[in-house]
Amino acid sequence: MTYLRRNIAGEQEEACQKARQITAISTHFHITLDHIDWQQFGMGAPVKVNTIEIASLLDLGQRDSDDVLRQIQIKLFACAALETLHARRGLKVFMWSPVDVVQPQAFLSLWVITLETDERIPIIESIRNGQRVYEHYRFDGDDEQQLTRLFGPMNTGKYHRGNTVTINEHERHYTGEIMYIIPPGKMFANRKYASRGSHTISGTASTNDAVASYIVGCNDGFPHIVHQSQVIQ
């Protein structure tokens, strides 16, 4: 019995320390956590932001500060996308894709959240009143000024604006219209976080800095951003 009490006391002490550590990390990144009930649940206590469960204290307690932020981002981006569509219960996110845009912007980052229905929802991460917020980005493909603010001046390429093309992205084919052309060298590697596994950064498409990239609207939400090598005529 004495041994059991010691074990419980030890876990309580560890849970208290981890809760303080995770709270401090989150505060550093401008994120306020809900109260972590380590007294009742120990290391199994859920860590939440605005009632959204991120992970257990045990899980987050094993990660470094950048990875803690990444886990929080993954959940909050996904929730913002699902709330935007008032999505049906149980609908899942398939992919998280950061979008490289010119700087500075009024937001920290822009991501495309792809649902299992293939809908592509643009979500921005911003700092407001000292806190990170995640909300739908209102994108208008007909707004030339908005496109320029995001991607820089319009360029020319092998394919032309208004052309209908088929693109190869993530081993799938999509057909749509070229909306905008990004100058060579202005598009960084297209990172993506897949929904399965540990959300690690995946490989990138073959690129060539000497050719343009294209923004292609395929009527599935936020347009696809692809390198010329991904365009199938």
In short:
With 233 residues, the chain is α+β, with helices and mostly antiparallel strands. The protein has helices at residues 2-28, 38-41, 57-61, 65-85, 144-151, and strands spanning 46-49, 52-56, 93-99, 109-115, 120-128, 131-136, 164-169, 172-182, 193-194, 213-217, 224-227, 231-232.
Could you explain how this protein is built, in words?
The chain has 233 residues and is of the alpha+beta class. It folds into three domains: 2-62, no CATH class; 70-136; 144-232, SH3 type barrels (Roll). It is built from five helices and twelve strands. It has helices at residues 2-28, 38-41, 57-61, 65-85, 144-151, and strands at 46-49, 52-56, 93-99, 109-115, 120-128, 131-136, 164-169, 172-182, 193-194, 213-217, 224-227, 231-232. The protein has a five-stranded antiparallel beta sheet with strand order 6-5-4-3-9, covered by helices on one side. A hairpin with a 2-residue loop joins strand 1 and strand 2. The N and C termini lie far apart (74 Å). Mean pLDDT is 88; it is low at 1-6 and 196-207.
Kindly report the CATH topology of the largest domain: SH3 type barrels
Terminal CA distance: 74 Å
Instruction: List the strand order in the largest sheet.
Output: 6-5-4-3-9
Give the integer mean of the pLDDT values.
88
Shape: elongated
- Write down how many β-strands occur, each being a DSSP E stretch of 2 or more residues: 12
CATH architecture of the largest domain: Roll
